[in-house]
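Quick bug: Isopentenyl-diphosphate delta-isomerase output formatted oddly.
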Amino acid sequence: MEDIQKRKVQHIQLAQQSGSQMDGSIFERYSLPYKALPEVDLDDVSTATSLLEKQLSQPLIIASMTGGEAYAKTINKHLAIAAQEMNVAIGVGSQRVALEVPSARESFSIVRKHAPDAVVFANLAGVQLNYGYDISHYEAVVDMIEADALYIHLNPLQEAIQPEGDTNFLGLREKLGDLISRLSVPVFVKEVGHGLDIETCKFKLDAGVSGLDIAGTGGTSWSWIESQRRGSDEFSDWFKSVGNSTESILQDLSMIEKNVSVVASGGIRNPVHGLMARSFGADYYSAARPFLHAALDSEKAVIDALVLWQQGLQIALFITGIQDWEQARFLELELST
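Here's what came back:
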């Protein structure tokens, strides 16, 4: 097994530990405006929406997690089967490993094999443009899984703490702008858990992205994971919760005129949090850890989890008197007491 593959295994193992989670989701500050007389029939409440001209049963994207070796291949297979069965979108982990280790490609291509109709996101780091990558590499990861769109992830804090990190982010704005304008598929830019900032969001909007995935604080801390790999308790303490909250960036984005998809992730631990994110302007929500444990078990476990999330969203809409996901954008939350 190559070093980069070993790193992927370590990432999944550490992500399962409770210490990888930041302290509390920002959405726990709020509560839904419960209505005792909602004037809605639960059976008529719809969780459906669309993404990239494909219909989804619920506004959920199974977040980018892993890939690279047999361990990850099984996880991706279970997630893909469930995504196809439940008609939800799915992302894969960084595909750099598959470009450097050809034998790792099947751990990613298996997603499209088992989810032929799903919205599928390819994934590659933006910083690789400063390490010899060009448009051909980004098109290659799209082709590898016949992706509908490409996630370009930005992760400076993770890279800075990661022992093998790529930390030259100088000059990336111009390179990313050129790349985004030339790629053959829609581009979504995302962080990995420490949050996009509003300045970066504005730049990406000007560059012509199709979507922004906030990936804010409140969920899995990749700085903590890399600190554990590095053996630094100090870095774990200092940087674990550093970043921008999903809520704050959603609120900042709501003040900007835009015509892109906004994905709320980071601290989305259940569909109630997803509905709360909708009230701040999110079009979709995304989560990883709630489905990781299920994916380590079986595709049925993932399907069961997705069913639960869809039912949970339907109930949350119902008790707030909302008929469908589109109407949910007008929901006004209450501060928890």
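Actually, after a second look the formatting is fine. The mean pLDDT is 93. Closing.
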